[in-house]
Amino acid sequence: MAHSVSLSKYSVGVGDRFAQEAKAQLRACILAADAGITVTPVWNKSNREHMIIGSEPQSARAAADKAVRELAWKHDYHVDADHINLKTVQRFIEPCDFFTIDVADLIGQPAEETAIRTFIEKHPELVGTLTIPGVDGSFKSTREEVSQIARQYVAAVHEAGRIYRHIEHEKGKGNFIAEVSMDETNSPQTPLELLIILAAIADDGIPIQTIAPKFTGRFNKGVDYEGNLDQFTREFSADVAVLAFAVKQYGLPANLKLSVHSGSDKFSIYRPMREALQKFGAGVHLKTAGTTWLEELIGLAEAGGEGFEASKEIYSEAYAHRDELCGPYISVIAIDPIRLPQPAEVEAWSSRQFVSALRHDPSNAEYNSDFRQLLHIGFKVAAKMGARYLNLISEAKETIAKNVTENLFERHIKPLFIGA
User: What is the mean pLDDT of residues 91-109?
Assistant: First the structure.
């Protein structure tokens, strides 16, 4: 499957909720390039985020283009229509060249039995004993097991195909990068399930360059990985091997790679991920998304004065509306209300205490992951402040930019792509 807009081996999805930090984010990629590793920035923003903030997809493109122009970035960059479906894709068609097609909600929806039978008959190689280079042991599956897995995913893949073809019709073949996302669901996909999904995607003619499966363990917003690290390491390595196998077996794009959603701040898995990527010579797409907005809050708190007062006000409002804020993110957060400080307590904090609680530094005894997660999803509060918030971050621009660049390069790009 040919494609002309091609995603490079290593890429990082960077969210920029208020479209103010593109230069600071790009500086992190420049530091990586200076260290000898090209990491392609992909500015991503979902329809939900645009609706909350009241922005248009064009604003993400404009901010990215401006940063690239002003910093004279000579490598690739992309703008991602994040988590789109057929209802929301249209407004992203013109400004975006990367589309994260989200069909997680359709997992488990029944496909027609004729479609399942056709799939099984087309793929006898999936039944029986299957050996994949780079995976210890072999997969053993019966026709019934493969049918059952296909029933889980074929309808979702068909919908991804419909969305892909709509984008292709609007933008033209080869003019964009397609990703299929199945991560925002409760059950992780096994390597065998991933292979069956990839076979179905190839059958549907979707030339995906990245796929975002649901991995084992918890990928909560903006905090470290929670789960069995050994199991994750085995599964991630097996998934990388499965992708390499599927590329050869089913003719998917040669640069096909895993996309790790809510991958920001997963410090404990970066090393095993890097080792698996090196073992297979594979690439990866890491989505860091909302961490930049948290660095804005940290920068405001560090700046003191009105900025710090606004940070405390945002927490107080987020605390008061936590149930409403948590609702849309329930599969990717785990907040213990008991561990959330009372707003009155936070009001009495110093700037240093606020920053220590919020900045993701596990070695700091004052770091509070529940506080951090609530503020991660609390950008809606800042959005309601409108121009006031934008003016405050403009006033604290230098402090914020330093935090944004350092966070992205030191805590994410360096340990995953370079090695600390």
Answer: 96
In the chain, CATH 3.20.20.60 sits at: 10-291+409-418
Q: Which residues have C-beta within 8 Å of that of residue 339, sequence separation ≥ 6?
A: 368, 370, 371
State yes or no: pLDDT of 257 exceeds 80. Answer: yes
Tokens of 287: 């989505």
- Cα separation values, 394 from 17, 20, 32, 303, Å: 14, 8, 26, 11
Q: Burial level of 109, CB count in 10 A (0-12/13-18/19+)?
A: middle
Question: Taking the complete model, does pTM exceed 0.85, yes or no?
Answer: yes
d(CA 230, CA 269): 10
Nearest C-alpha neighbor of 197 from the set 234, 246, 135, 163: 246
Evaluate whether 201 touches 178 at the Cβ level (below 8 Å).
no
**What value does the mean pLDDT take over residues 325-342?**
94
Joined tokens for residue 116: 């399942």
Domain 10-291+409-418 indexed as CATH 3.30.1240.10: no
Q: Are 256 and 243 within 8 A, CB to CB?
A: yes
Asked if 411 contacts 267 with a C-beta cutoff of 8 angstroms, the reply is yes
Q: Half-sphere exposure of 211 toward its Cβ, with a 13 Å CA cutoff?
A: 33
Average pLDDT rounded to a whole number, residues 107-135: 95
CA 368/CA 290 separation, integer angstroms: 17
- State how beta strands 128-130 and 98-102 pair: unpaired
